[in-house]
Specification:
By secondary structure, the protein is mainly beta. It contains two helices and 18 strands.
Length: 263
């Protein structure tokens, strides 16, 4: 089943955050409590934007003097604890590469960072999407691989191998405990959250938050409810982060042009 979104409202981040200082490259968005939380590829700060997208409603930028300084791709939230998780696509570790998450309290105060224990091929083909889910009272992080079969190069561009890696908190880092295989019928050369690069905007998305299906208790798509494809209204550059909110409202963060949209 396919559903087309209609643009409801849009605002440029520069108009909402006039004191940000410098160009911000939006890369992920999260909605909750009447706000949209936006993170940036080129800065560690986290924007807190009212869902109305109105400057008069008090948007602000939470400065983050600690932790990594760039490379952020998505943001997730655990409503049970109030904690936020910000994804770092990939970092060098030993002889290879791994993604990281930075953890924040309910007030967006920095708590620390931990590795997502899954080997990656390169810095440029890491984890691009992140969401938090609970099973049996325990939090899990779900990371969407950018390349098909979580690979770089030609293998990563070959369609039909979408993967979501599932992580559970270990003693020091997040251990991989399962892999969700996205349907092989998805004709995507890459699986960014939801996508940028050469693929045209306005295409059907394969995001983490319900676009292709909802994982069952075993984190396999076959055990959950069927999903649907969501087509986002076209804009130059395409969306960089997409999430679905209650009531069917979708928030989109745009890397190019620095905007946030709702539809």
């Amino acid at each position: 089943m396919e559903r087309r979104l209609v643009l409801a409202r849009e605002a440029k981040l520069a108009s909402l955050l006039p004191d940000a200082g410098g160009r911000l490259e939006a890369s992920g968005v999260l909605a909750g409590g009447g706000r949209c939380y936006v993170i940036f590829d080129n800065a560690p700060d986290i924007a807190r934007i009212p869902a109305t997208l109105a400057p008069a409603d008090g948007p602000d930028l939470i400065r983050q003097p600690r932790g990594r300084r760039d490379g952020f791709e998505d943001i997730a939230h655990d409503p049970a604890t109030g904690r936020f998780y910000v994804l770092v696509e990939a970092r060098a570790r030993g002889q290879g590469f791994m993604a990281e998450v930075q953890e924040y309290d309910e007030r967006l105060g920095y708590l620390g960072r931990a590795w997502l224990q899954f080997p990656l091929d390169s810095l440029n083909k890491g984890l691009e999407g992140l969401t938090c889910a609970r099973r049996h009272g325990r939090p899990f992080l779900l990371g969407l691989c950018e390349g098909n079969r979580c690979r770089d190069g030609a293998e990563g561009r070959r369609p039909g191998g979408g993967r979501v890696q599932v992580f559970e908190r270990g003693r020091r880092h997040w251990d991989r405990v399962a892999t969700i295989r996205l349907p092989a019928t998805l004709p995507l050369r890459g699986l960014q959250q939801p996508g940028r690069g050469r693929r045209p905007p306005g295409r059907a998305l394969a995001g983490l938050r319900g676009a292709v299906g909802r994982p069952g208790p075993s984190f396999q798509l076959g055990g959950g409810r069927p999903g649907r494809r969501v087509v986002v209204p076209s804009r130059p550059g395409g969306p960089d982060g997409v999430l679905q909110r209650r009531g069917g409202v979708v928030a989109v963060a745009r890397h190019r042009g620095g905007g946030i949209r709702q539809g």
